[in-house]
Write a structure and sequence with these properties.
elongated; 22 helices; seven-stranded mixed beta sheet; alpha/beta; eight-stranded mixed beta sheet; disordered C terminus
Length: 591
């Protein structure tokens, strides 16, 4: 849909620019802007009794730009000048009201963006607005405005120090402003309105009597750090005693996506934006800014999706971009998993799941985006040179074989297959909770007869697959454990066999390289669910020299990684392959 941007109100204009593709944003932000534009078309209807009141949006804009001062950074001491993305977020949050009463539409908001994008400054200004200027009046009748008596504003965080961040910034902002300091008395532990009383205070799990008030405004800072939703639920359940209470959650991504109340809230907001909730949830404002699966986290061009401030060219945004570059270079240059995870969560706003040592934390969506059909993969790799990698497990466990095939465009194609003995399948399906039989039907693995893996079946798969696809397998790479006899048989067949010793000296670089290629989008695979399962089970352990090696979570873990281990064995020979067969154009992609 085309929009005439001339003369559009600033909130609507931003939404139209996003939906029209004029701004580089993620799909969630597009969905939020499209939701706003759709609501404008149906405003004031029987099923949607809300309208956008520009005077109410102007009120919050004027508050920031006429009363609120920056308290740190290059603009400290200057009045805040809102940026276009803030005109959208704040305009939506405060401009939508009930068509008859003027009560605010939204009772809850979730604002998700990366570190350094003035979250604390914005929330501090909103907190002060809640104390001083938040009013209700019927649309078109500002002369009838009413203020809450004894306003209560809660600045909430997981601990006392974090809670004082927004509260402390709000106090500093209030002290700098003659208009605000005239209205508020800023005390040591709380802020009160000189005429209407009430309070603004810092609140955490350590605060007593959290459920004794009637909050007008609750600001939840960095919700990802909360171990549970108790304090948020308690405060939200206290709503209903005020005209238009509002709960504002503002946060970056976190490192525990599997057991995190913020991730649960994030998932709900994604469903709202996609229109997948049972009810429309018209009273929940959702804004998510993040890098997406197809984005390379190391590419500065992608960072703006999670860092909306990078849309603008000023001293602050230039400094932020420089800092993100430094953190990127340090994280990926060192290969430190902790630093990479921190970069992905704080700067790219990408959730990380499970343990910090999970090999593919935060990358499984990226991995899945690199999938093609089996026929498409065959078309890419036919009649090319390949490296074979094998991981021979105990004979009653999963065993893996993987071909990697370098392509002319710098990508590495991965074709993998698993093998498991028939007598173990039923027991292991229950123990591992995976569908080995279904994987066999899909062509991703072979169930070999008997109680142990028949390695001759694996050898036959390797030979027949290479023959069918015209692959020239230049090397077959093995962990020698349990494989001496098998390697001897392949050598007797005329194959080139290479031993890959299972130590960090040999495995660290290929392990890092494979992950780097996934991040860069330079892997292509057929979506083999057995391989995906192994990849999701793999943990990455590093030594004091930042060498990396894959392992199961612990020695007793039943979840297998063998097919990925086979791939890493093959990857270990990629530099030698490139030296022998590659060209300069290809070699730049192998890091």
């Amino acid at each position: 849909m085309q929009y005439n941007l001339d003369g559009m109100y600033i909130t609507h204009r931003y939404a139209a620019e996003v939906v029209s593709g004029l701004r580089k944003v993620c799909k969630r932000e597009v969905q939020a802007c499209r939701r706003h534009l759709r609501d404008l078309e149906r405003q004031g209807t029987e099923g949607f009794p809300y309208i956008f009141d520009e005077s109410r949006a102007d009120r919050i804009f004027d508050w920031f730009e006429m009363c609120c001062y920056h308290v740190r950074g290059p603009f400290a001491g200057q009045l805040i000048q809102l940026l276009p993305f803030q005109y959208f977020d704040l305009g939506c949050l405060f401009g939508w009201v009930h068509k008859d009463t003027g009560a605010r539409r939204f009772t809850k908001s979730f604002n998700f963006r990366a570190r350094g994008n003035v979250k604390s400054t914005e929330m501090s200004g909103i907190a002060l607005y809640g104390m001083c200027a938040d009013a209700i009046y019927p649309p078109g009748h500002p002369e009838l405005q009413r203020f809450e008596e004894a306003p209560e504003v809660e600045c909430v965080a997981v601990d006392r120090d974090q809670a004082k961040r927004v509260w402390g910034d709000a106090c500093a902002m209030g002290e700098k402003s003659p208009d605000i300091s005239e209205r508020l008395e800023i005390l040591k532990t709380k802020v009160v309105h000189r005429e209407r009383g009430g309070w603004m205070r810092a609140l955490s799990k350590e605060t007593k009597n959290k459920d004794s008030g009637a909050p007008c405004l609750v600001i939840v800072d960095e919700y990802h750090a909360h171990p549970n939703s108790d304090i948020v639920d308690t405060l939200y359940n206290g709503f209903g005693k005020r005209w238009q209470s509002l709960l504002c959650i503002i946060t970056t991504a976190g490192s525990d996506a599997e057991n995190n109340p913020c991730k649960t809230e994030y998932d709900l907001c994604c469903r709202i934006l996609e229109g997948l909730t049972e009810t429309p949830m018209d009273n929940y404002f959702c804004m998510i800014r993040e890098l997406e699966a197809e984005d390379d986290p190391k590419d500065p061009e992608c960072w703006v999706k999670a860092n909306p401030i990078l849309q603008y060219d000023d001293a602050y945004s230039r400094n932020l971009r420089s800092q993100i570059m430094k953190e990127r270079d340090e994280a990926y240059g060192s290969g430190d998993i902790k630093k990479i995870r921190a970069f992905l969560t704080k700067r790219c706003n990408i959730w990380q799941s499970g343990s910090e040592f999970k090999y593919m934390d935060g990358l499984m969506d990226k991995w899945n985006s690199l999938k093609v059909t089996h026929d498409e993969l065959v078309g890419l790799i036919e009649d090319r040179k390949a490296i074979g990698g094998y991981d021979l497990s105990k004979r009653f466990d999963l065993t893996g074989a993987t071909f990697i095939v370098p392509l002319d465009d710098g990508r590495i194609a991965v074709l993998s297959h698993g093998f498991i003995p028939e007598d173990s399948v039923e027991r292991k399906e229950k123990k591992d909770n995976v569908a080995y039989r279904e994987w066999e039907k899909r062509g991703w693995m072979t169930v070999t007869p008997g109680a142990v893996v028949d390695y001759d079946v694996m050898k036959e798969w390797a030979y027949s697959t290479a023959e069918q696809l015209g692959l020239d397998v230049v090397e077959h790479c093995f962990d020698t454990w349990n494989a001496d006899y098998f390697m001897q048989k392949m050598e007797a067949d005329g194959a080139t066999v290479v031993e890959v010793r299972q130590n960090v000296y040999n495995l660290s670089e290929p392990t890092k390289r494979f992950k780097e290629l996934v991040m860069q989008g330079l892997i292509v695979h057929e979506g083999n669910a057995a391989f995906d399962w192994c990849l999701g089970n793999a943990y990455a352990y590093t030594d004091i020299n930042d060498n990396m090696k894959l392992s199961k979570k612990n020695k007793d873990d039943t979840r297998r990684i063998d097919m990925v281990a086979a791939c890493i064995n093959a990857m270990s020979r990629l530099p030698a392959f490139n030296e022998m067969y590659g060209d300069d154009d290809f070699s730049i992609h192998v890091l």
